[in-house]
């Protein structure tokens, strides 16, 4: 049985990877449909949004953020309030959470 959070994450990743690989073989899907490894740049944005949102509520913005060039934490630091409408971030609470977290990222890198 997994004990630490890192071990739990690794076990969950391996299980998801096996399922994705099975689907690739069974259904002829493209290999890139497999989940990104935890901690990879593809997963960095999702993990950050989960952390600041306290769960999955902000994950609805991942696709739009990546599509508009905000797929990494380095790129997120350039996110401005004016970008939110274009990205579909219209819920006031979500804007506040993301704005505060972006400001924190900027402060840490300064």
Describe this structure in words.
This protein has helices at residues 5-27, 41-53, 62-67, 73-76, 83-87, 92-109. With 110 residues, it is mainly alpha-helical. The protein has 2 domains: 1-35; 37-110, DNA polymerase, domain 1. The chain starts with a helix and ends with a helix.
Secondary-structure-based class equals mainly alpha
Largest sheet composition? none
Our Rg estimate from Cα atoms comes to 16 Å
What's the number of structural domains?
Answer: 2
> In angstroms, what separates the terminal alpha carbons?
41 Å
CATH domain topology of the largest domain = DNA polymerase, domain 1
As an assembly, this protein is single chain
Instruction: Quote the average pLDDT.
Output: 79
Uncertain spans: 31-41
Give the topology, please.
Blueprint: H1 5-27, H2 41-53, H3 62-67, H4 73-76, H5 83-87, H6 92-109
Which terms would index this structure?
single chain; 110 residues; mainly alpha; DNA polymerase, domain 1; 2 domains; 6 helices; 63% helix
Q: Quick recap of the structure?
A:
With 110 residues, the protein is mainly alpha-helical. It is built from six helices and no strands.
